[in-house]
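Per reviewer request, we include the raw input and output of the structure prediction for the construct analysed in the revised manuscript.
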Amino acid sequence: MVAVPVGVTEIYYLCSVKKRYFIYLSYLGTNYHGWQIQPNGSSIQEVLTTALRTVLGDDDIEIVGAGRTDTGVHARLMTAHFDSKSAIAEKQSFIGRMNGFLPFDIAVHDLKEVKPDAHARFDAIGRCYEYHVTERKNVFKKNLVTRIGFKPDYERMNEAAAVLRNYTDFTSFSKRHTDVKTNNCIVARAEWTRKDDEWIFTIEADRFLRNMVRAIVGTLFEVGKGKITLDEFHEIITAKDRCRAGASVPAQGLYLVDIGYPDELFVVNERENT
């Protein structure tokens, strides 16, 4: 039998078959060694798993994230799935208890029941990242934006960014020796826009490779400095060689901002729709 936390029987009830849920959260990555559990450092996955096991009274809960953000990378929206022996009847009460247990830099925003075989990582059909840079020192945004000491040509960088939509193999922007089966991605959007004193690079694709966004931004900076021409940017992509591309930019300016899923993964909850 699973121990239901005392005094909250209206929130959880035991069910004969495990239910699968998608949990939606945001976090600041500054104090963590990325999403994935690490042997010698705190991770988002570890802290979230501990909170879930405590709130649901189930020490067998395992959580699988939609991706593996690196050390220092932030998420405005991360999705993960877990199975629970306790059905969650009152979503808002569950979210409140989770946020009361979690540290200040991790927050749960939503919870949705999904089909038993739904997978937060493999069923995602789109992801969106942002990279934030500024040329000004801002003491209130330490570790939240990357400060650069040069003024790049953003118009030229946007010309290069548009090129990304014409390719599918992004080996040149991937960390080497990873366990993925293919380096192919379909980029739907890639552009720089300005907001106040920041420039933001937004990129949307069906999937991303490890270190891909930071490598692309680093290479675009070389374009913006005039060190790489548009033709050379094309050549870097077609070379399928990480050594040809620019250096990766720091993690602190990178944010995972959205993840998309097919509607058919979700179980309609009548109570939430009334």
